[in-house]
Amino acid sequence: MVVSKVFIDTFGCTFNQADSQIMAGNLVENDFEIVNSIDDADVAIINTCYVKQPTENKVTNRIQKLKDQFPELKVIVSGCMVEIDPKKLNKIAPDTSWIGPHQLNKTTNVVKATLNGEISRECGFSKDTKVGIPKIRFDELIHIIQICEGCLGACSYCCTRFARGTLNSYSISEIKKEAKGALLDGCVEIQLTAQDTAAFGKDTNEKLSNLIKEVSGLVNDPEINNDFRIRVGMMHPNNIGDDLDSLIEAFKHPNVYKFIHIPIQSGSDSVLVDMRRGHTVKEYIKIVNRFKNEIPNLTIATDIIVGYPTEKEEDFKKTAEILRELKPGLIHLSKYRHREGAPSSVLDEIPHEVMKKRSKYLTDIKSEITEYENKELVGSIQKVLVVEKGSKGGFIAKTDSYVPVVIEDVEIGKFVDVKIYEATSTYLKGVKL
What we know:
Helix 7 runs parallel beside helix 8, helix 8 runs parallel beside helix 9 and helix 12 packs parallel to helix 13 (about 350-375). The protein has 3 domains: about 5-120, Rossmann fold; about 140-375, Alpha-Beta Horseshoe (pyruvate-formate lyase- activating enzyme); about 380-430, CATH 2.40.50.140. The strands form 5 sheets. A 6-stranded parallel β-sheet has the order 2-1-3-4-5-6, with helices on both faces. Strands 15-16-17-19-18 form a 5-stranded mixed β-barrel. It has a 3-stranded parallel β-sheet with strand order 7-10-11, sandwiched between helices. The protein has helices at about 15-30, 55-70, 80-85, 85-90, 105-115, 160-165, 170-185, 210-215, 245-250, 270-275, 280-295, 315-325, 350-375; strands at about 5-10, 35, 45-50, 75-80, 95-100, 120, 140-145, 150, 170, 190-195, 230, 260, 300-305, 330-335, 380-390, 395-400, 405, 415-425, 430. The longest helix has 24 residues, at about 350-375. It is an alpha/beta fold. It starts with a strand and ends with a strand. Its cofactor is [4Fe-4S] cluster. Keywords: 4Fe-4S, Iron, Iron-sulfur, Metal-binding, S-adenosyl-L-methionine, Transferase, tRNA processing. Belongs to the methylthiotransferase family. CDKAL1 subfamily. This is tRNA (N(6)-L-threonylcarbamoyladenosine(37)-C(2))-methylthiotransferase.
């Protein structure tokens, strides 16, 4: 029997990576082979991200380039673009099959039809679970679990919610079962991911804090004989409030990375109202300070949108002040761009030169903060988990605060003690003790 080979090219977030692993699992169960090179493939699935304009450009360029360079290759498009912008997708690739992000269980059907010369398009929403189903792990030591899909938000700049839909949480018992299976397979890191992990359970009367406690408690399971860490994905501040105390206690568990990703997007209350974020700057600061006071070694990650259409100079200055006050250890900056279907897209964008200037100003602040925070760790002894090989040599490990450390002569998947001897704005350098 001739086995068809499939290459999956993934853009975007951790959740999208997990979607690709589900598609791979569906295909392998049906006797397809997943390959690591486009040159070896009969079919290529482009799993798209559409959250930002630069990513959209990369995705559309990739689709067009593949069709031009590999005319015999069968190309299938999956991911958020399928639901958000089918009109553009149909324009750049009119003869291409599609797999919507809620139709992953039909991946094999779409691939088979495409190989037979048909155009197969599986789109639309469903409440099918993404937990406890076959997946092909692309990193044998890190396991991603999607704890819920969709969100409760109405952010004016966002188009992702049009692809992911309303909140659909999966059960704690099933998530814990999948996590245990991954740990028994030798995984050392469990990543709990969602569009908004803080929204988890608000449709099922379960809580994120309880989920974290249940998964971290697996360290006491007699069948689990390897240490591990849990990374919790992005939390919208608007959904944390009623679970704040329990969440802080959950994050104190030694097996949970002391790392929280809480986007603020702007330091101006008036802009936050225009963005439809549903929280104030004061409410955000209260949450972050509670976490920092209870967990001193915590790394805070946040997101900032530079140049929202209603952002005035005084609004921008407030954002800069908030960053200097909170000193997040990780800051994701994005220049505002209109997104397909997003309510803010009817507004006039601010001049490009103004946006570029503001972005540069915040980038400088970001570098100052992160370099200062990292230099504070020079000379310290850190227990780190080695997670991958470095692209420029050595190995990449993560501290308990999820700060990357470059080290030599270690084994992937192991915990080691290192002494930090150098710091940059993005990573540390350490030597194994």
